[in-house]
Amino acid sequence: MLSVSFGRYLEEAIMNLDTTNPVTREHLPVVVRELQKQVMSFLSAHPSHSLARQFKMLLMAADSLVKAA
Fold first, then answer.
1. pTM assigned to the model
2. Taking every annotated instance into account, which residue ranges of this chain make up the domain Enhancer of mRNA-decapping protein 4 C-terminal (predicted)?
3. CATH of residue 17
């Protein structure tokens, strides 16, 4: 249950970032790219983990966020 909550937390955090805030916009690319790197590393090591599908969706949302910033 904790892992599902953690996956949901990350998903909600990405979706609710205020990209109009100048400080957020300044740090967003570096922080989100690091998140992407860590999630991809996790998925490589644990491809059949119960959160794999949710993390793949998170990667797509993060990629979209970085491209829009």
1. 0.83
2. 8-58
3. 1.10.220.100
